[in-house]
Specification:
Distance between the termini: 51 Å
Strand order of the largest sheet: 4-3-2-1-10
Number of helices: 5
Mean pLDDT: 74
Number of strands: 10
């Protein structure tokens, strides 16, 4: 009887410990930062999420894009974000830093006029059928092509990145790219 009682108490304490630790580890971190690259109906989106606040950058041709607003609203509802800011970007090349990594976002246009290796991009995001020559020579950790690119651009990227397919992420095929 004593032996069963001790094993029952030990099992009970281990179960309480495991339950408590799973609750602690499942709580969302207030300082957790995420970068999301996603698209909805060929509209490009980047979300920088820090705890319960999110900054969204959209590459939309429409001045008041209801699809982007609905996508952002749905994401916020599902992830308990309470503060949101949205910024619309025009065609061009944008650089920003996130978690000590250099990011470049190319929205449309022709990148052949830029010396991308000199920009020192760790991650390159390609949107709206940006034209890039010699993309296979660009030294990045990952090239992310979002859903605003057409099949011709995506096939070109796949062909050029055949030797290093792990460097290419296509959101139409693999879903949203999330960097934490």
């Amino acid at each position: 009887l004593h032996k069963n009682y001790v094993s029952f108490v030990a099992s009970f304490l281990i179960m309480i410990f495991m339950l408590g630790s799973s609750i602690i580890f499942s709580l969302p971190g207030k300082d957790k930062e995420q970068l999301l690259v996603f698209h909805f109906n060929k509209e490009s989106e980047i979300g920088l999420v820090n705890g319960r606040a999110a900054n969204y950058f959209t590459a939309s041709v429409l001045p008041d894009n209801n699809r982007s607003k609905q996508t952002i609203s749905n994401f916020n509802t599902s992830s308990s974000i309470t503060k949101t800011k949205e910024t619309q970007l025009a065609e061009g090349l944008y650089q920003f830093k996130f978690v000590d990594k250099n990011w470049c976002w190319a929205i449309g246009g022709d990148l052949s006029k830029y010396e991308l290796n000199k920009l020192n991009c760790d991650y390159l995001i390609i949107s709206k059928d940006t034209r890039i020559k010699k993309i296979e020579d660009i030294s990045t950790l990952k090239i992310i092509a979002d859903g605003s690119n057409n099949y011709k651009t995506l096939n070109y990227l796949k062909k050029k990145m055949e030797t290093t397919p792990q460097k290419l992420w296509i959101t139409k095929e693999k879903g949203a790219f999330i960097y934490e």
